[in-house]
Amino acid sequence: MIQVSGLRKLYGDTVALDGVDLHVREGEIYGVLGESGAGKSTLLRCVNLLERPTAGTVTVAGQELTALTERELNRARRRIGMIHQHFALLSSRTVAGNVAFPLEVMGVPRAERRRRVAELLDLVGLGGRGGDHPHQLSGGQKQRVGIARALAGDPAVLLSDEATSALDPATTHSILDLLKRLNAELGLTILLITHEMDVVKSVCDSVAIMADGRVRESGRIADLIRTPGSRLTRDIFPLPEPAPPGSVTLTFTGDPQRPVVSETVRKFDVEISILGGSIEELAGGSVGRLRVAVTGDTEPALAYLRERGLIVEVAP
Amino acid sequence: MTWDEMAPLLVEATWQTAQMVGWSTLFTVLLGLPLGVALVVFDRGGLLPLPAVKTVLGVVVNVGRSLPFIVLMIAIIPFTRLVVGTTIGTAAVVVPLTVGAVPFFARLVETALREVGADVVQAAQAMGAGRTTIVGKVLLPEAFPGLVAGLTVTVVALIGYSAMAGTVGGGGLGDLAVRYGYQRFETLIMIVTVVVLIVIVQLVQSLGDVVARRLSHK
Ligand SMILES: Nc1ncnc2c1ncn2[C@@H]1O[C@H](COP(=O)(O)OP(=O)(O)OP(=O)(O)O)[C@@H](O)[C@H]1O
Ligand SMILES: [Mg+2]
Predict the structure, then answer these.
(1) Which residues pair with A254 in a beta bridge?
(2) Domains in chain B, please, with CATH?
(3) Is A77 within 8 Å of B127 when comparing Cβ atoms?
């Protein structure tokens, strides 16, 4: 749905993006993680060409945006929704007026506009608040207006730059739930930027981790979790890194209730002591990670664990 | 001089002032608003960056702003004659008043427009809005309370300028104060004129404040 290739962006001497490739599949929620200054916002703003990339191409819904004229681009942008960290609502307009803005831009007639606005406000749970001004709303409600506005053009794609960073945890939760619902009900593809691992854990299907203008790691979360040495896995689980020499880190997906560890101890001549670990609930199911010390006849025991579908990493 | 003698003089002078200020306000808005918009739109990082054009406009505005009004008024006499065919009377005064106020108002417009958040403009761009739409539906409406405040300041300045301009043939309250109050030592008329001016300025300012406040949804 979104295909970014070889994207570079320079601001004078600053290299904000240094050859970024990104592939967002239709209907997925794709998270971009990274520290401040990693280039996340620049990347997102290049996706709808608010920022002209220095090099590279951006294709959204089959249309190569980087090849369009300004007029064509404006047309294409109407099908790419965007929500903002500080909501970016027009204070001169009511809530309904804000949601109507993109419809006016698209030239939708007044009666039709009114109907769509009411529909959209209902969809985001703000039915009846159309006459209020943005300053009368809470942060979460403002973001809902932002979401309703972003959906006005029936977009295939929604871009979100830190849309929950200005909100408290409970409100963040409700906005993420709304995004998940829109993703499920409307098949909306969402590319979201965040620096909160919790956001990635609770809503994302795929993720890209950025540092210094490059993507360090990307893919489906379920796949990354199963990739030994994955940075994402290390970031998700609160285990001390690097692992102590000789220790074994086990990652298990699927049903964490299976008594694999005790089975192993029974079957082989080993002792396993637990150094640390946790189970995390991810959008795709729960994943556990356990750091253990194994003593005794280790090799066959570890082979058995691998056979049972666990990812086994032995620290050198 | 008695009140009965003074009243018609005051009424006429107030009417002349109102005409001078009214017409020059109208022309100032018609010329100054687009100029202020141009200063923002053509700026580096603006909607249509044309830094060279913006620099030229900026210089023109600064020149206009740095001339004392009384000097400007005399310096542009040939221009005034060209436009209205005469250099005396209310119509002739409207020309220097407008020329003096346009750069002033344009700067205030520029300031008000710059107050509009870059994020709102970008949000509009992200929705596929073109430049004209952004100016008309985002920049101007969002800056409206600021524009009204700027207009209020401009009208008050125009009332002041008009008192000066009046002395060279436009009539009005300033002229009345000078001719009767100063040249004929009618202290009372001087005082009354000053009071009327204060009241007018006060009314304009209060009206502007109320309108700006009612329009602001912050
Ligand atoms: N308009 C700009 N002009 C100059 N440099 C810029 C501009 N925008 C971004 N940069 C630079 O590009 C780099 C990446 O910035 P970007 O805003 O994309 O980071 P980010 O990952 O979104 O960070 P944050 O988490 O703080 O929002 C930074 O070094 C930043 O200083
Ligand atoms: Mg950012």
Answers:
(1) none
(2) 3-217 (1.10.3720.10)
(3) yes
